[in-house]
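Researcher: Go.
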Amino acid sequence: MSEPQVGRPGFGRRLRDALDQYGPLCVGIDPHEALLRAWGMDATPAGAREFGLRTVEAAAGRVGVVKPQAAFYERYGAAGFAALEEVIAAARAAGLIVIADAKRGDIGTTMDGYAAAWLAPGAPLESDALTLSPYLGTDSLNAAFSAATAHEKGVFVLAATSNPEASALQRARVDDEESVAERVAHDVAARNIGAPGSLGSIGVVVGATVDRRSFGLTDVVLAGTPILAPGFGAQGAEPGDLGRLFGYVASQVVASESRSILSAGPAGLAARIDQRAALYRTA
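Model: Structure:
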């Protein structure tokens, strides 16, 4: 793995600066087939590439964070990964923080490989942060945590997701003391101890459409932890709900929207981003 980067602020600090400058809105880059057709593009690697690059162009200078969904590029195989590499590189070159939504999670050298692919400086898929699944045990993600720390990157670990079928697992009790989601959040918080600034670099994913407190995710548990919150926009949560949903930790939230923005099409994309971003700033 490459040597740590020197002289660049850590991920938590960069994310804090981006949230302070632009607000919480994160633009998802989700070139699924229906949206490609609506944009007048073919469902091909070239279409996904063009879709991503146009979204990056519209987002740059309007928001601080974008989140490309890897699955919509993986479906095309090698050509899709090549398109994703271009989109990620263009976004980072434009000054955007890139959270790669790939939900990786495995053990041993396999996790080492995922960490190297997405977080190592100079890797073709190098991103600023990566989403991770902890359901082989949070410690199984240690390679990604170490890579994030070494290379001033971030990760977001699934804790309480917005899909209904996840609730039974994520709210299940561990040793009759805490929920699975709460245990994940505690494990994450422990890895942020001693991190400089107000935000750590190891974050959690908490859906905006779930009652986080019913998962044990109180303000105290989440203090200082970056929170990636899908579920805003088309899934039902609105910018004005941010304070009610997240309370004391609302300033730590990256509010992800995809369809609510991307449905504007390429001609209306920049204006839609401006509109949605303004709603968060005035909430």
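Model: The longest helix spans residues 265-282.
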